Amino acid sequence: MSVVLSKPKRRRPQWHRLTVASVDRLTDEAVRVSFAVPEELTTTFDFSAGQHLTLRRTGADGEEVRRSYSICSTPRMLRDEGVLQVGIKQIPDGEFSGYANSGLCPGESVEVLPPLGTFGGPPAQRWHDGEPESRHYAGIIAGSGVTPVLSIAATALETEPDSRVTLLFGNRAAATVMFADELADLKDRFPERFHLIHVLSREPQASRLLHGRLDHDRLVAIFEALLPTGDVDDWYLCGPYGLVTGARQTLIEAGVGTDHIHTELFFAEEVPPPPRSETSVAGGTELTVVLDGRSSTVTMNPDEAVLDAALRVRGELPYACKGGVCATCRAKLVDGKVHMARNFALDEADVAAGYVLTCQSRPETENVVVDYDA
Prior knowledge:
- There is one protein chain.
- The protein is α/β, with parallel strands linked by helices and 374 residues long.
- The protein has helices spanning 75-81, 95-102, 146-159, 180-189, 216-225, 241-253, 306-311, 348-352, and strands at 2-6, 16-27, 30-36, 52-58, 64-70, 83-89, 109-116, 127-128, 131-132, 136-142, 164-171, 194-200, 234-239, 261-265, 285-291, 294-300, 330-335, 338-340, 355-357, 361-363, 367-371.
- A hairpin with a 2-residue loop joins β2 and β3 (30-36).
- One of its GO terms (molecular function) is 2 iron, 2 sulfur cluster binding.
- This is Ring-1,2-phenylacetyl-CoA epoxidase subunit PaaE.
């Protein structure tokens, strides 16, 4: 039985070393890392608000560590200042996040892939009768979920003079709010067009409505009192799995169309994968990897992920989270069938076009062809 990964048509992103310009403390457990991008790489690292960077280093045990972090700066900052910034919150036992929060220093270089991701910034500026159309963007975010939405909000406010942004931001307490100064600066610059609503779960607020978790009932109450759903054109949801899926369902119940709801997950480890179908193939699988015009073959186990088997013969394959969240290992299924255990990164159009996350895919037919550059 064979699984074939054939070459995608898109150019595979290459690693580049970027120098750390600064590491700024945001909270006790989060930092902003700024990279200096040389002029000759500005086009390579051009991005849309909402995308992420994949960083790579060798860990203390000699093993390679890759992690993806959302870009918090704007495309304008890259073009004008040659700076690219990410927010990194330390997580328990997080090897890369721990290093970034305690050991990373200005002047060091880090291996970085060019921006990836499909969360996306504000839609292209609309024009109505020759004038920019006013839009209202809203974000429902929690914790480090503010990182890509900060870039989206700032980009919309800077480039769409008649558009508005409202952020509903959940945190434990005021001291844990990432990018508090940057958000305050946006409020100062765009007082009539930027509205920020803090909801704190462990710290009392003047309004009881804004004290607690952003669960279904609280969201419904906030929509009724402060943020009518019918007044918003596009919604951006980012944070833990429970917040994102819960907020999405609440918006759908309120009549918001799914094409106006954009989601991004940071962690999905607590989500059990769906069961494999009964067509799972037993026995060994011959996996053929076609990348950059060159084919490699390896025998894989039926319960082994395509990516893990492929990396044994093609260590340069792109990947990052291995959790079905970042889409770095995305490839196109050309022939055959695989079971994709989790998918929090590809949209319905991607799946319909045959794309899969190879970190989550296991073979179910004797012949499978996947195009890694398509």
